[in-house]
Every structure is written in C-alpha cells, then in structure tokens.
Amino acid sequence: MTNQFNRTYLVLTLLILITEILIAIYIKTGFVRHTLGDVLATILVFSFFRSFLKVNPIKLGIYVLIFAFTLELIQFLNVLDYFNVQNKIVRIALGTTFQATDLIAYTLGVVIIVITDIKLFSNE
Prior knowledge:
76% of the residues lie in helices and 3% in strands. By secondary structure, it is mainly alpha-helical. It is built from six helices and two strands, in the order βααβαααα. α2 (30-50) crosses α6 (100-121) and α3 (57-76) runs antiparallel to α6.
C-alpha cells in the first residue's frame, strides 16, 4: 500500500456522497433508500480510500466489508442505545436498525467496486 492520488476515485467519491445525501433527504423508504443506499455506501468507502492509496483492491474490499459488517453488528447489539448516544449525526452515520439484508447489499457493493477496480486499473 502506497500513497497515490487517484482523481477518478475522488470524483467517484464526491458523486456518490452527493447521491447518498440526496437519497437521505428525499427518499424515505423503499429499495433505493434501504438497499441501493447500502450498496453505494460500501462503494463510497472503498472509493474514498482508493482516492489516496494504491492498494490491492481485493484486500481493500475485504477491509471495507469488515468495517460495514462491524457497523451492522453494532446495530444488532444496540450499542448506541446501550451507551445512550443521542447525537443525531452519530446515529445516522452508524445506523440504529439491524437488517440482515444490509449484509447482502454491502457484499454486493464491494463485489461491484472490486471487479470494476480490477478491470479499470489492473494495468497500473
């Protein structure tokens, strides 16, 4: 893993971030909010790190998936309620409701971005 700026991934990160914010503001229920948003979330995290690091995409994908699954475990265990965390931004960022289907969405997002990364940047 080395530091290396990647403009393509930075642009992707910003576009997905804007998309996620718009989904959060304007779409309150349904597939786009609950499933596509989770797929995009893992792509967002992967893209953010790839904006600044040259790293094996499979390893990064595994780290992103571990991170996403850990957040879902925190939701499953109701950690925010246990510690009486009331900060709205923290609750939105970490989530408060466990959904087993989120694990599938996170995995799908990682698979999509890892395959895309390998196909686009395998010659670097």
